[in-house]
Write a structure and sequence with these properties.
Distance between the termini: 23 Å
Shape: elongated
CATH class of the largest domain: Alpha Beta
Helix content: 40-55%
Number of helices: 11
Largest sheet: 6 strands, parallel
Strand order of the largest sheet: 6-11-10-9-8-7
CATH architecture of the largest domain: Alpha-Beta Barrel
Number of strands: 12
Structural class: alpha/beta
Length: 286
């Protein structure tokens, strides 16, 4: 495992730091007393991580780190990498090493892998629904505290795009900002005066009239909040490519295709990270 950024994988130090925190939480003050009491310290074993259901894999690095933290010499054979699709019953990885290490690292390995693979799988389902439209689905900041970078990584593994990672990435003027500032014009003017030359500005609108106002101020992107499909299509005609258009609000697998067909560039979906069900994966002892 390299952890090099140019491979598309997460930096190794981030993965091991997160795994160490999770293991510290799980081990408590006395460690894995069940394994310590029942398994000889020199026992070796082989185990497979197997998909109980089909899905898109993400987080394989966390599984490897969970086992190698206890046994640096463990052999971890990745059979399906991040972004790959696993069929039900298919082996994702095989681990050979100290039996205690495999048993103690199992839960943390699967917690990360199941959670992130669930996000990747849901993202892939959305991307499959809008195939051929030119639109992309993207995540939001509705993430689990301290897991945002990993959850957004899982979205990318599922074929989706990332919205901003933090409040400092870009300026996104939402409805409450507009109300507090005294209108769209004042809010955008303030943003323009504050922002550096590398900072993009997006503004949220909920009507075509607000869209017209935002476009007059030449913002980089416009978030079309909770608009119906007819309004989204009209917004695309109105914008004529003058800004990136992002649809948001209550998007489901049943509605996403019609939204994409309206011609928007992005469809942001908070459910990708806050409501994705875990992918069912298990560790089978050989």
């Amino acid at each position: 495992m390299t952890g090099d950024s140019d491979t598309g994988r997460l930096p190794q130090f981030q993965v091991y730091r997160a795994v160490a925190a999770a293991l510290d939480e799980d081990l408590g003050q006395a460690g894995d007393i069940t394994t310590l009491a029942t398994i000889d310290e020199n026992a070796t074993a082989t185990a497979d991580i197997v998909a109980r259901q089909a899905g898109c894999i993400a987080g394989i690095q966390f599984a490897e780190a969970s086992f190698k933290t206890f046994h640096h010499g463990a052999h971890f054979e990745e059979k399906i990498g991040d972004g790959g699709m696993a069929k039900a019953g298919e082996t994702i990885a095989r681990i050979q090493g100290n039996a205690r290490a495999l048993l103690t690292g199992e839960r943390v390995a699967l917690n990360y892998l199941c959670h992130l693979s669930g996000i990747a799988t849901l993202t892939r389902r959305y991307m499959d629904e809008i195939a051929g439209t030119g639109a992309r689905v993207c995540c939001t900041r509705k993430t689990t505290p301290h897991l945002r970078a990993f959850e957004k990584y899982a979205v990318r593994m599922g074929g989706g795009a990332n919205h901003r990672f933090t409040l400092s990435d870009a300026i996104l003027i939402k409805d409450n900002h507009i109300a507090a500032a005294g209108g769209i014009g004042k809010a955008i003017a303030g943003a323009r005066a504050y922002a550096g030359h590398m900072v993009k500005i997006e503004v949220e609108v909920d009507s075509l009239d607000q869209l017209e106002q935002a476009l007059k101020h030449k913002v980089d992107a416009v978030l079309l909040d909770n608009m119906d499909v007819k309004s989204l299509a009209q917004a695309v005609k109105t914008a004529k490519g003058r800004a990136v258009l992002e649809a948001s609000g209550g998007v489901t697998l049943e509605t996403v295709r019609a939204i994409a067909d309206a011609g928007v560039d992005l469809i942001s979906i908070g459910a990708l990270t806050h409501s994705a069900p875990a992918l069912d994966l298990g560790l089978d002892w050989s």
